[in-house]
Amino acid sequence: MSLFKTIFAGSNAALALAEKAVNDAIAAKGKEQKVAFPDTAYSLPIIFGATGNKITTLEQLQSALAVVRSLIVEEEDLDKALNAGLATAVSAEIIEAVKYALADNPYEDEAGIGFIPDAVIRSLGVPLVSGDIPGIAVLIGEADDDDSLAAIVKDYQSKGILTFLVGNVIDQVMATDVKVGLEFRVIPVGHDVTAVIHVVSVAVRAAFIFGAIKAGDLPGLLTYTKERIPAFVNTFGPLNEVVVSAGAGAIALGFPVIADVDVPEVPGALMAQKDHQMTVKTSLDARNIKIKVTEIPIPVSFAAAFEGERIRKDVVYAEFGSKRSKSWELVRMKDLDEVEDHKIELIGPDIDALEPPVYLPLAIIVDVAGKNMELDFEPVLERKIHYFINYIEGVMHIGQRNLAWVRISKDAYAKGLRLKHFGEVLYHMMLDEFGSVVDKCQVTIITDQEKVFELEKTVAIPRYNARDERLASLTDESVDTFYSCTLCQSFAPAHVCIVTPERLGLCGAVSWLDAKATKELNPNGPCQDVPKQGVEDEAKGVWEEVNKAVDSASQGKVSRVALYSILEDPMTSCGCFECICSIFPEANGVVIVNREYSQATPVGMTFGELASMTGGGVQTPGFMGHGRHFIASKKFMKAEGGIARIVWMPKELKDEVADKLNETAMELYGIDNFADMICDETISTDIDEVLKFLTEKEHPALGLDPIM
Ligand code: SF4
Ligand code: ZN
User: Fold this and answer.
1) Cα 492 to ligand 2 centre (Å)
2) Ligand 1 mutation target, pool 123, 124, 126, 513, most atoms within 8 A of CB
3) Residue 312 CB partners (closer than 8 Å, separation 6+)
4) Does 615 have pLDDT greater than 90?
5) How far apart are CA 452 and CA 326, in angstroms?
């Protein structure tokens, strides 16, 4: 059969399956049965993206079958074949949606996770734009041997690639020692081939969330996924016609397909690579993904994919900090002649000097020197210790400063990992990531009890305190430069964050100091100086130079930004914000919801639904994405009355920011225990109940000017 014929045959077969699934479901549950994927604001994302229609019942799902039929036009033409591929994608979404109509969690008994919630996609925004996750691999089918498959997955993992597994590859990979799960960037999706749609759905929703693509704009959607989502597909084993036509769908989205069997090649789109040792290279080349590798001489793997690895109590070989001992870490700027490059010194016993479980105190001092180094960069570099140590396979790092907590697994110890390897990791990574400010680096690791405690008092704590003082003195008034950040433009082309000392980037990952360091590290990179000049309105936070910077960085899409307002020219959002703030007119204030909170809020919408109201670099008065740490800022909605407008937050978020919030409220309004006046879900999400609570507490928002 020709390739075209195979694709059409596959599309028709998928359509027949979708029809049967819908009809059977209607017979069982009736036409009115609700159809929805969990935790998304985008309905059935593929159908919504292609048609602009939100499907909510089985009856509507039945009418969506017409969309599939219209996409299948059997002519020997590449565009027609790609459309037929999209038809298969829609059929797959219908089949998967039926599963969710018939059961609350159809993936409960599966190794796969099925539908991927919006919040996960949002959380992937920053790692994707920063290149921390350089690509997305979709592995589908059944490989002829587990080991070569595992080697491919491990290779992707070591390169930071996010890997989705569909089909029997799931069991094959899980039978090996590959660490699997979202935290390891290896995600089993589902055994049925139709489960691949849950990956496609991630790409489609990225276009809505970050790219402000309108539902129904199919050409815009396909351009977005092709140009901005660095995904590709690897198929394993013989291909049936449905898989081939699904492959055509992937190609329509711009994702090249690399098969391990003979296929008619379509350059740049469909290719064969039978040698599994070459699969990774062929795939990365096909998508033009460049990987930066830092070779670090340690006996275990080292990759960002191990960041989330937990070391459970029963597999601990050595532990530092937490309840049993002390652990602290410090980056110190020194003069060039005070640092001996690549010197790694251990003072005190290594972990092999004692019987396990080893409990030792630990101090890690990283001394850096460089012509362009500044004292302000110390905390930026120091925070990276957490990540670099976590990237070591078999090591867990939690916390920072003198509240660090480190565990080394038995397995890592058996492979030969010792404390001096921490030094190697820190040395190599500091130079690798901060090479333009760090010319020389030396690492001192101390496990000697007396020294760890003494130096904490005489060296570390004074340094932490000095930094805290510096941070406290950093206000928007005290500096003459803000920074723009356009890192997210690879997904949200018109978005620009303005980062000030009192307003960090909405992702929560870029403070003013980070932006300043980024600018120094990469002068033509994503962060640029914005002189704080030409004040137009101090209360709303409007400066001429800021407007100019935003105008040019957004290619003219946004020309005026009020940094301290949510109603008038608010800052745009990309999609990866930690929190969303929305006005709540009934209470004359706002609600703030964090990404992790998936329940309803008093304004009747979930985080995902609120978040879908903004994003993509568009200004949406009344909605604002922001970082968690912005909440207690004196500049938070200053134009509308400040934090006194906050009337509701999820409890977890409220508890986290309470101390700082209380401090700010005391300073701004002389109010004691302000956090207690803010309602949360444990009190109520019902408008009347919330109002009753606010009235009882004499919440200050009730006395402010009307918010609208
Ligand atoms: Fe993206 Fe803004 Fe964070 Fe920069 S500061 S990474 S633009 S969200
Ligand atoms: Zn972003």
Assistant:
1) 7
2) 126
3) none
4) no
5) 8
How is residue 266 written in tokens?
A: 């379509």
Give yes or no for a contact between 634 and 502, defined as CB atoms under 8 angstroms apart: yes
Task: Give the three-state DSSP class for 4.
Answer: helix
Using CA of residue 696, residue 699, residue 703, residue 705, what is the dihedral sign?
A: negative
Clarify whether residues 182 and 330 are in a common domain. Answer: no
407 occurs within a structural domain: yes
For residue 360, report the phi and psi dihedrals to the nearest 5 degrees.
-130, 155
Distance CA(429)–CA(92), nearest Å, equals 43
Which residues have any ligand 1 atom within 6 Å of their CB? 126, 485-488, 497, 499, 505-507, 509-510, 574, 576
What's the rounded mean pLDDT across residues 237-262? 96
What element of type H or E holds 392?
none
**What pLDDT does residue 645 have?**
98
What one-character-per-residue DSSP string does 224-250 give? HHHHH--EEEEEES---HHHHHHHHHH
- The minimum-distance atom of ligand 1 relative to the CA of 496 is 7
Q: Are 235 and 138 in contact (CB under 8 A)?
A: no
Residue 475 covered by a domain: no
| 479 CA distance to ligand 1 middle (Å) | 20
pLDDT confidence of residue 2: 86
Looking at the structure of the chain, the number of domains it has is 4
Higher pLDDT, 43 or 614: 43
Q: Which are the contacts of 106, defined by CB distance < 8 A and separation ≥ 6?
A: 99, 100, 114
Q: Do 159 and 242 belong to one domain?
A: yes
Find the ligand nearest to 487 CA: 1
Specify the length of the chain in residues. Answer: 708
3-state DSSP of 611-649: HCCCECCECCCCEEEECHHHCCCCCCCHHHCHHHHEEEC
- 85 and 223 in a single domain? The answer is no
Question: Would you say residue 359 lies in a domain?
Answer: yes
Q: Are residues 574 and 541 in the same domain?
A: yes
pTM of the model: 0.84
Confidence of residue 367 (pLDDT cuts 50, 70, 90): very high
The model's pLDDT over 111-140, given as tens digits with 9 standing for 90+, comes to 999 999 999 999 998 888 888 899 999 999
316: closest CA among 364, 356, 360, 362? 356
Q: Is the pLDDT of residue 328 over 80?
A: yes
Token reading at 594: 């964090």
Whether 399 maps to a domain, the answer reads yes
Q: Any idea what the Cα angle at residue 511 is, between residues 510 and 514, rounded to 5°?
A: 75
Q: Do 677 and 534 share a structural domain?
A: yes
Any idea what the CATH number is for the domain that residue 187 is in?
A: 3.40.50.2030
CA distance 526 to 509: 14
Separation of alpha carbons 97 and 22, rounded Å: 9
Q: What does the pLDDT read at residue 322?
A: 84
What distance in Å separates the CA atoms of residue 469 and residue 642, rounded to the nearest whole number? 24
CA-closest residue to ligand 1 atom 6: 487
Q: Contacts for 292-295 with beta carbons within 8 Å, 24 or more apart?
A: 293/159, 294/428, 294/429, 294/432
Measured from the CA of 505, which atom of ligand 1 is nearest?
5
Domain extent for 139: 118-286
Mean pLDDT, all residues of the chain: 95
